[in-house]
Design goal:
2 copies of one chain form a homodimer. By secondary structure, the first copy, chain A, is α/β, with parallel strands linked by helices. The first copy, chain A, is 46% helix and 15% strand. The first copy, chain A, has an 11-stranded mixed beta sheet, with helices on both faces. In chain A, helix 2 packs across helix 12 and helix 4 (85-91) packs across helix 6. Chains A and B meet through helix 9, helix 10 and helix 11 of A and helix 9, helix 10 and helix 11 of B. Chains A, B: Homodimer. Probably interacts with PlsY. Chains A, B: This is Phosphate acyltransferase.
Chain lengths: 368, 368
């Protein structure tokens, strides 16, 4: 069974995305509103939506733009935000999250999108889609507003795994570079390794080891290694891909979001302070909207799971229609670029499997 | 020799701060401009300034407000930003940083302020001032703009040590609570432990262990433990003190600063975009200045080293006159509150020295 066959197929073949309707903080209504918004903007997308059939049918019927473009697959159970990944793996077969991943596994859809529990989504994705050959720890990559010409950096891992040794960090560099090449159209991305200082002697032992591995691998791969970068460099034009472990990356991501949200709150308050500033705010409305669009976390919503046989986009748990639509847009772009296949080819050709082979360095430099 | 004796002493005794004039990115001119600004605002401060005598004498002479309030101690050498702490400890006796710490060690000054190399400053402070009895790893605490009534949270460690086990994290909680009580006047601060999720099963093993230790110690100490907090909670009104290891804390701090600086850059650009928005910016000038003052990292400049026999304030390496003046203000407040003595008393009474004593829990709960 292919996804196309299950659709009305009144037009050219569409890119099918598998969307978990449940598990987000705002429930299925926000998810359906989000995919409807994407459907209205982009006639090439179709959806398979997973969750309780009765409820979803009602929600989808209200959106005319989804008619004939949204198959519903019934799944009674929901993975809650506090569910333990291990339990979901054992008992989660009837959940909407499981069903959404299964559609990618079966080839019915190209990319899966979910707002649910990150740990459970990663655990299920690993078990059902399996890791790419040669990948030890998959990672979650996110896009980060930056001073780059392309307007975004890629940062990974932002929360797939709280651990990462030097070999994992090298793989993150490879996977992040591949994402930057295919997702941001950068033929030769600049890679930086996140640390507490840019001097080479600083930081943890595994970071020093990773520094040398990533530098060495740069000789035979299409990226430049800029060395250690600090938290303040993340939004800079020094670097396109920032590599770190999932604990640090997750804290950094949420800290940046928290900072942006505090500032925008203070900004609103500043503009309400006096009658004069209220007038100013009115005049500046367009400028402020433009800025808001640029830094709004909802508009860069969507972490991508890298290192699996299939692509999974994790949207924020608190995503509203705008957030869901932004995650869908990212999923569509990755599906279109054939990213999963390219990443698989790149990882298969990296030296990470041979990490203990002492002869590797001389071999690979001989191939230059 | 006391500091008062070495001054003109034309007035009531002043609080003497020891200031390292060298090692900052902007050189001694910025430091002298900063202390002059503080001197103009606060007649109760006097300074001992450390660095090359000839250069400093020239700079100080130009500031009339410093006349009779700034002793200069000659030190020829400078700790550079890329100096290794171990080398500074062995060969740094003639540096301005060493001299600045020595003045606190001798009792000539109450608090030391430096913009220099953080690692070297911490290493020298540990060797010369020594750790408080019962403290394993000293920490750097910073103030973080937040939605709290007091406008700031305390976060530690933001970079003294890249490692911290559960016992260190418990001590950070104690020290951070003491800082919040004395520096922010919060009789019962709320403490949170930084993690990648608020669920109790998440995160690294040492974080789970620290969670239980800090929760247990809350019973007999004057703080409330709110459990795990995430990066987004740092500027929230959920918590007054955020505890984390120095690697994570440093990345979070620099990431937040980088985010704030990106946003303010984009805000400036937004207001220059069209003639209308330029007019708006003019009208909103006061509001924007107020906001800028609130989130300007220079105005919350100054990390405090906690856990030593004496207080050291680390200013940003890139601090300008405003930044230095802000660090001096913090140093003055801490000197006035008798913070060092209070912290020492608090740490001495905590159960952390008895961390391996299994009978501790029943004993302390018996005393409740």
């Amino acid at each position: 069974m292919t996804a196309d066959a299950s659709h009305a197929a009144q037009e050219a073949p569409r890119t099918v995305l598998s969307v978990d309707a449940m598990g987000g903080d705002r429930g299925p209504a926000a998810v359906v509103a989000g995919i409807a918004r994407s459907a209205a903007k982009n006639p090439e997308i179709a959806f398979i939506l997973h969750g309780p059939e009765k409820e979803l049918t009602k929600l989808v019927k209200r959106r005319k733009v989804l008619a004939g473009r949204c198959e519903i697959r019934d799944a009674d159970e929901v993975v809650t935000m506090d569910a333990k990944p291990s339990q979901v793996m054992r008992k989660g077969k009837n959940t909407s999250m499981w069903s959404a991943i299964e559609a990618v596994r079966n080839g019915d859809a190209t990319v899966c999108v979910s707002c649910g529990n990150t740990g459970a989504l990663m655990a299920l994705s690993m078990v059902r889609l399996r890791k790419l050959p040669g990948v030890n720890r998959p990672a979650i990559a996110c896009l980060w507003p930056s001073r780059n010409p392309q307007g975004f950096n890629v940062m990974l891992d932002v929360g797939a795994d709280i651990r990462a040794d030097q070999h994992d960090l090298l793989q993150y560099a490879m996977m992040g570079a591949s994402y930057a090449r295919n997702g941001l159209h950068l033929p030769r991305p600049r890679i930086g390794l996140l640390n507490v200082g840019t001097e080479e002697h600083k930081g943890r032992a595994e970071l020093k080891a990773a520094h040398d591995l990533i530098e060495e691998a740069a000789k035979t791969n299409d990226y430049d290694f800029v060395g250690f970068v600090e938290g303040g460099d993340i939004p800079s034009n020094k670097v396109d891909v920032i590599v770190t472990d999932g604990f640090t990356g997750n804290v950094a991501l949420k800290t940046a979001e928290g900072t942006a949200s505090l500032i925008s709150e203070l900004l609103r308050a500043a503009f309400k302070f006096s009658p004069l500033s209220r007038i100013a705010a009115l005049l500046a409305l367009t400028s402020l909207r433009r800025l808001r669009k640029r830094i709004d976390p909802r508009r860069v919503n969507g972490g991508v799971f890298l290192g699996l046989n299939g692509t999974v986009v994790k949207s924020h748990g608190s995503a509203d229609a705008t957030g869901v639509s932004s995650a869908v847009k990212l999923a569509f772009q990755l599906a279109q670029s054939g990213f999963a296949e390219r990443l698989a080819a790149r990882v298969a050709s990296t030296p990470t499997q041979r990490q203990d082979d002492e002869t590797f360095h001389s071999e690979s430099s001989g191939q230059k």
